[in-house]
Design brief:
The complex is a heterotrimer. Chain A is mainly alpha-helical. Helices cover 76% and strands 0% of the residues of chain A. Chain A has a domain at 38-131. Chain A contains six helices and no strands. Chain B is α+β, with helices and mostly antiparallel strands. Chain B is built from 22 helices and eleven strands. By secondary structure, chain C is α+β, with helices and mostly antiparallel strands. Chain C contains two helices and eight strands, in the order αβαβββββββ. In chain C, strands 2-4-5-7-6 form a five-stranded mixed barrel. In chain C, strand 1 (34-37), helix 2 and strand 2 form a beta-alpha-beta unit. The relative contact order of chain C is 0.14. The chains are: A mainly alpha, B alpha+beta, C alpha+beta. Chains A and B meet through helix 1, helix 2 and helix 4 of A and helix 1, helix 2, helix 8, helix 14 and helix 15 of B.
């Protein structure tokens, strides 16, 4: 058994060296990184995180308002401000290329909304959904007679 | 196989060194984006590699323990053939070496987890965070390689090990170190990513979102570890208490307190972009305190039940702590422009203000505990004379602060963010205030007014629980009114959609229940320490306790912890003349490997451990411990004769001799020393702890994975289509 | 001079309160603390009525129980002077001869010291043992 130990240790060393150095070898010998497009993804993730935080804040404010802790004026002002911020983030996400992201990312956005949907539906959601469901202008279609 | 373990430790050092270099190169020197990504990915893989290597090392050591391989020094000194298998498996972390390996293993596992979860995120902070985590792994690994190697082997292999300390042969002690170390190592994740974000000058909502979960997880595990330790103290140690302000207990409490503050104040940063300096300081302080807690137990620098005289690890730990503190201060000070608040506190009557107040109280509590714990060192430096403060000093400051904290726990949920209206606050505040006042009045009138602090604590806790109940009722009412659901369904959906909020509320309820248990049990416990002969009785609070008869067993003790003999008593507990229950405390006597004892004496000459008997109930526990006297002249004479007659290797003869000893003990049992305690409401401490931990678990539940969300969406639209059709 | 903002006032008040409380805490810790001493120091410097945290090793064959009181001797870790302590209260399970203990004591009659009730702590015995001697290490 003890004779096997040096072999096992050597095997471990080789496996780990190969595993750990793989990305660097890929860059050095093949000239490409294994993970590409990371910065763009990170930017979108950051925007999504901001959006989630705003939605959660809005959900909490609605619950506080409906439970009688927050006055209507204060709630409406908060809703207006947060609504503007969420729409701005939505726009930034679209500008960041949300439209051509993979299916998994689109669902991930939906998953965020799932997590933060308030106790009751927020009218903001309906407003956003209504906006999105309006058919967008089709640049190619416009050219067809 | 020890060679494989040693090879793993050396490989870990090499991988950490490479990984730190790769991470820093990726952040500071790599030019092209692809090059940066590659070196960062390589550094990330080093964490996974360290996790693999530490897992292999743990497996090697664990197998050695289970196979009783006494070639391993660690196994020989902390395990034995007579140690039950379950405790043998857990004995790996009973030693200095094994516990360092456990720390490293858990750190590498949690680090791997966060890197898997942040695979595409926090790219600016990640290289620095990875380097810090690898640096910590390297530190603990170096301690093992150079100071306390778990794979040291012995040339002269003993036939039997020393055995696991019988005090540690208790179910909660199997889990206590892994839970506590998980808490410590999880605290290093926010520390590393906090420091990384500060170095990279990149703190945003994404960072907050990821760090929050790990901070909460650390809080949860530390809480479990502290609760298990308190339970061990109560149910295993013979002093009858669950918290003694021992330095090692306090060492775990400190990062838990600052962690609690951080979890709350992070919400303010998330919503209002405020308290960034405060949060940065808290997250770095929590990580530093986690390392200091580890240092306290390892170094022997403070006298404590857990500290075992000076060890060689003190100096390296001090160097690390100095680095962590110095680095943290530098980062917070140099990044102050990045940490400027985006908004100001609009009103003192806001949730932000309540959270801020709660933070100040928690940090205040932390300061008290820190000062009292490290006072022996502080006094030595300042006054030239080492002094220490005891539990009364701690209680004097922590009790009022805890009362303020409970009051804020009740007030906070009632106040909305930004600004509350006085009318709304009054409307929601009066009912729970009335509940608290009624409870207080009831206690005072009911004869418990002798302890004003207990009455105040219970009233405030009742107020806090009433506030939470009100919040839940209001939330369910809102949901049933708008979504037209049944109350039970509304409650489930309310909690499911607001896990952070309602998980937090459940934590508050748990803490309130725990504090009720602490206040009542510590203020109204009744204790008697008496020597009783068979047939004698003593009054303990409302109970009368009679020593009915002695008990004794050979190799078959009630706790199955490997005691050679177990000697105890049957006690009858009555109240108002009516028998309530029987209770059977005992003491186990374990073998020793110390030289100079006869063959029979060696079987019972080791650690003696109380097997506490507790009759538990929601209204209170009855706690009992016995110290039987097996050294009477007659029993000593039997033992000495047995030592002369019995052959050292003859187990059967030794067993017969011990049977004779025990029979004599039962025939004419001498008076025994009893410690008897009537402990009202102490079960609320454990119950409250469990409720609080459940709340933390609920708050930790992540959103459903994409597949499930897609399925839910499909089902939802199907249902909608059917309804329309 | 411009009026300080509400923020500044709040910060000043909070910091002042914190400093006052911290000063109170620090002062009481020094006045309430018990000096930690070994038996040699205790014998030389103990003042009547003052409490001390005595640390040392329980002397072999010195432990006797008379009724509710446990009497034992504590000596310096390195050997030397020993102090007799009369103690009543909880006796921790690990307590025995040769173990390191900490107990709060006050000077009693006849040169002995009286241990404060339930103040006896026994250090867990050699949980972290020294590494094996080099001769036995492979």
């Amino acid at each position: 058994m003890e004779g096997v130990v040096p072999l096992l240790a050597l095997l471990l060393l080789l496996v780990i060296a190969a595993f750990v150095s793989a990305p660097v070898r890929s860059w050095l010998f093949e000239g490409r990184a294994r993970e590409e497009g990371g910065e763009r993804r990170e930017r979108l993730e950051a925007l999504r995180a901001e959006r989630t935080a705003r939605l959660r804040e809005l959900a909490d404010a609605e619950l506080d308002f409906r439970s009688g802790k927050l006055e209507e004026q204060a709630f409406l002002a908060m809703k207006e401000r947060l609504g503007r911020e969420v729409l701005a983030l939505d726009q930034a996400l679209r500008d960041g290329g949300l439209a051509d992201l993979e299916e998994g990312d689109r669902v991930a956005e939906k998953e965020d909304r799932e997590d933060d949907r308030p106790a009751v539906e927020v009218s903001l959601q309906h407003r956003s959904a209504a906006k999105r469901s309006r058919p967008a202008a089709d640049p190619e279609g416009a050219g067809q007679a | 196989m020890a060679g494989l373990g040693r090879a793993c430790l050396l490989l870990i050092l090499a991988v950490c060194a490479y990984g730190i270099g790769a991470g820093l190169y990726s952040a500071r020197f790599a030019r092209a984006r692809g090059e940066r990504e590659s070196w960062l990915d390589s550094a990330r893989r080093c964490i996974y590699a360290v996790a693999l290597l530490t897992t292999v090392a743990m497996a090697v050591l664990e197998v050695a323990f289970l196979r009783n391989d006494f070639r391993f020094y660690t196994v020989a000194t902390t395990s034995s053939r007579t140690t039950p298998e379950l405790y043998r498996a857990a004995a790996i972390w009973a030693s200095q070496e094994g516990s360092l390996l456990l720390w490293t293993w858990l750190l590498s596992l949690w680090s791997s987890l966060i890197l898997l979860l942040t695979r595409r995120r926090l790219r600016d902070a990640a290289p620095y965070a990875i380097s810090i985590l690898l640096g910590l792994c390297a530190f603990f690994d170096a301690l093992m390689v150079f100071y306390a190697n778990p794979f040291n082997t012995l040339r002269r292999i003993p036939a039997e090990g020393d055995g696991l300390d019988p005090l540690l042969r208790f179910p909660t002690m199997i889990l206590h170190p892994p839970m506590l170390y998980s808490g410590y190592t999880l605290a290093m994740i926010p520390f590393a990513f906090g420091a990384g974000a500060l170095i990279a000058r990149r703190i945003d909502a994404q960072w907050i979102r990821l760090i929050r979960r790990f901070a909460l997880a650390s809080w949860l595990f530390l809480g479990i570890g502290i609760l298990l330790g308190a339970r061990w103290s109560f149910a295993e140690l013979g002093w009858g208490g669950y918290w003694g302000w021992d330095p090692v207990e306090n060492a775990a409490l400190l990062p838990w307190l600052t962690g609690t503050a951080f979890i709350h104040s992070l919400m303010i940063q998330e919503r209002r972009g405020m308290l960034k300096v405060w949060n940065a300081s808290l997250v770095l302080a929590t990580g530093t305190l986690a390392v200091m807690g580890t240092f306290l137990v390892r170094s022997g620098v403070l006298d404590s039940i857990h500290a075992f005289g000076a060890s060689t690890l003190g100096v390296p730990f001090l160097v690390l702590i100095a680095l962590l503190i110095g680095g943290s201060i530098y980062l917070v000070v140099s990044r102050r422009p990045l940490l400027r608040s985006e908004h100001r506190l609009e009103s003192l009557l806001s949730r932000e203000a309540a959270f801020l107040a709660n933070n100040l109280v928690l940090v205040g509590l932390g300061f008290v505990v820190f000062w009292g714990t490290y006072f022996p060192l502080i006094s030595k430096v300042v006054a030239g004379q080492q002094s220490s403060v005891g539990p009364p000093w701690f209680d004097r400051y922590t009790v009022p602060l805890a009362l303020v904290l409970v009051a804020l726990t009740g007030l906070g949920p009632l106040i909305p963010w930004r600004r509350a209206s006085l009318a709304g606050l009054r409307r929601h505040l009066l009912p729970p205030l009335a509940v608290g006042a009624a409870v207080g009045l009831g206690l005072a009138v009911g004869g418990l007014g002798s302890s004003p602090s207990a009455v105040a604590a219970v009233s405030l806790c009742a107020f806090a629980i009433a506030v939470t109940a009100g919040e839940v009722v209001r939330g369910v009412r809102v949901r049933t009114a708008v979504a037209h659901e049944l109350p039970a369904v509304a409650l489930i959906r309310l909690v499911a959609r607001n896990r952070r909020r309602y998980g937090g509320y459940l934590v508050h309820v748990g803490i309130a229940l725990l504090l009720i248990g602490v206040a009542v049990s510590s203020s109204f416990m009744r204790q008697q320490e008496r020597q009783l002969a068979v047939g004698q009785a003593v009054k303990v609070g409302p109970y009368t306790v009679r020593y009915v008869k002695p008990t004794a067993s050979l190799l078959n003790g009630p706790d199955h912890t490997g005691a050679t003999i177990d000697v105890g008593a049957v006690l009858e507990v009555s109240r108002n003349g009516r028998r309530q229950f029987l209770i059977k405390p005992s003491e186990g006597f374990y073998p020793t490997t110390e030289a100079g004892q006869g063959p029979v004496s060696a079987l019972i000459g080791g650690q003696a451990v109380s097997h506490i008997a507790i009759s538990a109930g929601i209204g209170g526990d009855f706690w009992s411990a016995i110290e039987p006297n097996i050294h009477t002249p007659r029993l000593t004479e039997i033992l000495e004769r047995a030592n002369r007659i019995v052959q050292p290797t003859n187990a059967t003869e030794a067993a017969v001799a011990l049977a004779v000893l025990l029979r004599e003990y039962l025939r004419e049992a001498p008076p025994a020393q009893f410690n008897l305690i009537s402990y009202p409401f102490v079960e609320w401490v454990w119950l409250g702890g469990l409720v609080g931990l459940l709340g933390a678990l609920i708050a930790l539940i992540p959103p459903p994975p994409p597949l499930l969300a897609r399925a839910r969406a499909k089902v939802g639209s199907l249902v909608g289509a059917v309804a329309e059709g | 001079m411009a009026r300080p903002s509400r923020q500044t006032i709040r910060l000043t008040v909070t910091l002042s309160l914190a400093v006052i409380l911290a000063c109170g805490l620090i002062y009481t810790s020094f006045s309430a603390a018990n000096p930690t001493v070994d038996p040699t120091t205790l014998l030389k410097e103990a003042q009547p009525g003052r409490a001390y945290e005595l640390t040392g090793v329980v002397v072999a064959h010195s432990v006797r129980r008379v009724g509710e009181t446990l009497t034992f001797q504590i000596a310096d870790r390195q050997g030397g002077a020993a102090v007799t302590v009369d103690y009543s209260g909880e006796v921790p399970d690990p307590f025995r001869e040769g173990r390191e203990v900490i107990v709060t004591v006050r000077r009693g009659p006849g040169g002995t010291f009286v241990g404060e009730r339930n103040s006896l702590i026994t250090k867990c015995p050699s949980k972290y043992k020294a590494a094996p001697p080099a001769a036995n290490r492979s």
